[in-house]
Design a protein that fits this description.
heterodimer, A: mainly alpha, elongated, B: alpha/beta, eight-stranded mixed β-sheet, four-stranded antiparallel β-sheet, 20% strand
Chain lengths: 304, 346
C-alpha cells in the first residue's frame, strides 16, 4: 500500500485510539515492511534465543571431552554424533558454539550499556550546557577518537589484565566518545528546530526544553548506533580474544578464542575455523542489518 | 527629519507594547552584516489587532522575534527598546523574560507541522504550559487542556489529548498551537504567518477562530502576514514593511481605499480581486526583494519603483503623515501615490 493511500485510510478512520503508541508504533510498522529489517531481526532473534536457551539446545556440555576419538593433529569432522565435529581437545564444536553465543551477547550488551550510558551522559551535558563545557567534553572525545578503536581497546584490556570484565570495560570505553559526540550533535540540530522555538516562545523553562523536548528527539540516532555498536562489540570481543586478551580460562567457549585456537590446525581441520567465523559473521550481520533498517525507520525525513 | 510613530496607542492611552527604533543586525563571520530590521517603531494598544505586512525578507518576523528576545544570542545584535507595560523586554533578565513569555505574550508560528514536539502528546504539551504559568496540578491542567482544545474547535477533546502531533492534520495542529498560546490568556498574541502553511479553506477556518477568540477580547493580536486578504478581514491598524522599515502605516480602511506608498499599491495590484473585470492581468511588482538600496542611500524600494524620481536617492525618506489631519496614516515616500485610479491601473 502506498503511503498516500494509507494516509487517506487513516484520515477516514482517524481515531486516536487506533494510532496510539505514536512514533514507536510508526517505526515498527515501517520495519515490518523492510526485508532488510526482517532478515536482521531473524538473525538477531536466533542469536539471542540460542544464547538464552544454550543449555537446552546444546547436545553436550561445552567442556565435556571425548578423548577416545582424537589423536594429535587429526580430529574427526562432522558426524552424526557431533554435527560440527570435535575440537582439538575433543569437545563438541556445536555445543561450544551455542554456549559461545552467551558470551558474545553478554559482552555486547554490557559493553554497549557502559559505552552508551556514559556517552549519553556526557553528550547530554555537552549539548545542554554548550560553551566551554561542550568544548571540553568534545575535545576529550576527539582525543579518544584519534586512537583507533580496537587499538584503544587492546590498550585498556592489556592494562586491566586478562578477563571478560576487562574486555567489556575496554569495548565500553571505546564506545563512550562515539555516543557522546552523536547525541551532542543531534541535540545541537534539534535545538534549532521550530518546536523548540515555539516552546521557548511560550515560556517553557530551559532545563525542561533540554530534557523534555530536545533530548528525546535526539535519541533516534543513538538507538541506531547502539544496535550497530552491538555488532562492533562482538567483532572487537572476538578480536581481543583472538589476540589473547580475553579470559585466561581455556574452558570458556568464546568465539574469538575458538578461532584463535584453530590457528595451528588450519591445515588439518579447516572447518574448525569456519564455524566460529561463521557464527561471528552471522550475528554481526544481523545487528548491522537491523541497525540500518532502524536508521531508515527512525529517519525523521520519512516521518509523516 | 524625525519619523512619526505609527500606531494608535498613544491616542487611546498607554500602549500595551511600544517598540522604539528597533534595529536588528545579523553578522556572520566573513560576510557583510545584514540589517534585517532598520529602526522600526510602533505602538500596539490593548486589545487592538495589528497587521504587519511585507514580502519575505522584509523583517516582519525578525521584528517580533527580536521583541520577545527569541533571536539567537550569537550573531544577532538588537538595539532600540521594546516596552511592554512599562518593562523593557530587551534589557529584562532571562528568567523574567521566560516567565513573561507564554503568560503575558504568546506566539503562534507559521508551520504547525514542525512547531509541535513530535515525541510528546498534545495533552502533555498543553499541560506543560498550564503547570508552568498557571501553577496547576496535573489533573487540573488536563481538564483545562481539554477545555482549551474544545474552545479551539477540536472535537472529542479529551481523547485528542492522547494524540501525537503526527496523528493530527495541519489545521488541527495549528488549532492546538493557538490553544497553547491562549492557555494563559495573554495580553498580546503574536501570530507569525499562522495560515501560510495551510490550504485555503483551513486557513479561513483558522482566521475565523482567531477572530472569535482574540479580536474583541482583551488580548491584542499582532498578525504577521504577506497576505493582504488576511489583513483586510481582521486588522484595525496595518503596518507595511519593506527592507526592514515601515513604509506605510494606516488603519485598515484608508490603507485599502487610499494607499499612498507605491509598494502598498503594488501589493494591492498583485492580489486578485472579485470586483475587477475578468481578464485584467494581475500586476506583479517588478524585480525581486533583493534589488534593494541600503536605506542610507535613499529609498530601498526605488530600484523597483515605477514612480521613482531623483529625490528618492540621497537620503532615506521619513515616515510622515500622509496628509494633514491623518495622524494614523503615515507614509515613507517622497512621491506618494495620490491619484488612485491611475495607481491601481497604471
Amino acid at each position: 500500500m502506498s503511503l498516500s493511500q494509507e494516509e487517506a485510510a487513516e484520515t477516514r478512520t482517524g481515531h486516536p485510539e487506533e494510532a496510539r503508541g505514536g512514533l514507536a508504533r510508526d517505526a515498527v510498522r515501517r520495519l515490518r515492511r523492510s526485508p532488510t529489517a526482517i532478515v536482521g531481526a531473524v538473525l538477531v532473534t536466533i542469536f539471542v534465543l540460542v544464547a538464552i536457551f544454550a543449555p537446552l539446545l546444546a547436545p553436550y556440555s561445552p567442556t565435556a571431552q571425548d578423548l577416545s576419538q582424537i589423536r594429535p593433529g587429526s580430529f574427526p569432522g562432522p558426524s552424526r554424533e557431533h554435527l560440527l565435529g570435535l575440537d582439538q581437545l575433543g569437545r563438541d564444536e556445536l555445543s561450544r558454539l551455542i554456549y559461545g553465543a552467551r558470551y558474545s551477547l553478554i559482552i555486547g550488551i554490557v559493553s554497549v550499556t557502559i559505552g552508551a550510558s556514559i556517552g549519553i551522559f556526557f553528550g547530554l551535558v555537552a549539548g545542554a550546557f554548550g560553551g566551554w563545557v561542550d568544548s571540553l567534553v568534545m575535545r576529550l572525545a576527539d582525543i579518544m577518537l584519534a586512537v583507533p578503536g580496537l587499538l584503544l581497546a587492546i590498550g585498556i584490556a592489556a592494562l586491566l589484565g586478562r578477563s571478560l570484565t576487562s574486555v567489556m570495560i575496554a569495548i565500553g570505553v571505546v564506545n563512550i566518545p562515539i555516543f557522546a559526540r552523536l547525541l551532542r550533535g543531534a541535540m545541537l540540530s534539534q535545538r534549532e528546530s521550530d518546536y523548540v522555538l515555539a516552546a521557548t516562545a511560550l515560556g517553557v523553562k530551559r532545563w525542561r526544553i533540554v530534557l523534555l523536548h530536545v533530548f528525546p528527539n535526539s535519541l533516534a540516532p543513538v538507538i541506531v548506533q547502539a544496535t550497530l555498536a552491538l555488532a562492533t562489540a562482538i567483532i572487537d570481543a572476538a578480536g581481543l580474544a583472538f589476540l589473547g586478551l580475553g579470559s585466561p580460562d581455556p574452558s570458556i567457549p568464546e568465539w574469538g578464542r575458538m578461532l584463535a585456537e584453530t590457528n595451528s590446525f588450519l591445515a588439518s581441520a579447516p572447518l574448525l575455523a569456519l564455524w566460529p567465523g561463521l557464527a561471528i559473521v552471522l550475528s554481526v550481520l544481523g545487528f548491522y542489518l537491523l541497525g540500518e533498517a532502524l536508521r531508515e525507520a527512525l529517519d525523521p525525513k520519512l516521518r509523516r | 527629519m524625525q519619523d512619526a510613530v505609527p500606531g494608535r496607542g498613544v491616542v487611546q492611552g498607554a500602549p500595551l507594547l511600544s517598540i522604539r527604533d528597533l534595529t536588528v543586525t545579523f553578522a556572520s563571520r566573513g560576510r557583510r552584516p545584514v540589517r534585517a530590521v532598520d529602526g522600526v517603531s510602533l505602538d500596539i494598544a490593548p486589545g487592538e489587532t495589528v497587521g504587519i505586512v511585507g514580502e519575505s525578507g522584509s523583517g516582519k518576523s525578525v521584528t517580533s522575534l527580536a521583541a520577545l528576545g527569541l533571536l539567537p544570542k550569537r550573531g544577532a545584535t538588537v538595539t532600540g527598546s521594546v516596552d511592554f507595560e512599562g518593562d523593557d523586554l530587551l534589557s529584562m533578565p532571562d528568567d523574567e523574560l521566560r516567565a513573561l513569555r507564554g503568560r503575558d505574550v504568546a506566539m503562534v508560528f507559521q508551520d504547525p507541522m514542525s512547531s509541535l514536539n513530535p515525541v510528546l502528546t498534545v495533552g502533555r504539551q498543553i499541560t506543560e504550559i498550564l503547570t508552568r504559568h498557571r501553577g496547576m496540578r496535573k489533573g487540573e491542567a488536563r481538564e483545562e487542556a481539554a477545555r482549551l482544545l474544545d474552545s479551539v474547535g477540536i472535537a472529542d477533546a479529551t481523547r485528542r489529548l492522547g494524540s501525537f502531533p503526527h496523528q493530527l492534520s495541519g489545521g488541527m495542529r495549528q488549532r492546538v498551537m493557538i490553544a497553547m498560546a491562549l492557555a494563559c490568556k495573554p495580553r498580546l498574541l503574536i501570530a507569525d504567518e499562522p495560515t501560510t502553511a495551510l490550504d485555503v479553506t483551513i486557513s479561513a477556518q483558522i482566521l475565523e477562530l482567531l477572530r472569535e477568540l482574540v479580536v474583541g477580547s482583551q488580548t491584542a493580536l499582532v498578525l504577521i502576514t504577506h497576505d493582504l486578504g488576511v489583513v483586510a478581514g481582521l486588522c484595525d491598524q496595518v503596518h507595511v514593511m519593506y527592507s526592514g522599515r515601515i513604509v506605510e502605516s494606516a488603519p485598515r480602511r484608508p490603507l485599502f481605499a487610499d494607499p499612498q506608498h507605491p509598494y502598498t499599491t503594488g501589493l494591492l495590484a498583485s492580489v486578485p480581486r472579485l470586483d475587477q473585470p475578468r481578464g485584467v492581468p494581475l500586476l506583479p511588482i517588478p524585480g525581486s526583494p533583493s534589488d534593494t538600496l541600503p536605506w542610507s542611500q535613499g529609498c530601498a524600494f526605488s530600484p523597483r519603483c515605477t514612480r521613482s524620481i531623483p529625490e528618492c536617492l540621497g537620503s532615506p525618506p521619513a515616515l510622515l503623515p500622509a496628509a494633514a489631519g491623518t495622524p494614523h496614516h503615515l507614509v515613507r515616500c517622497v512621491n506618494p501615490v495620490r491619484d488612485h485610479a491611475g495607481a491601481v491601473q497604471q
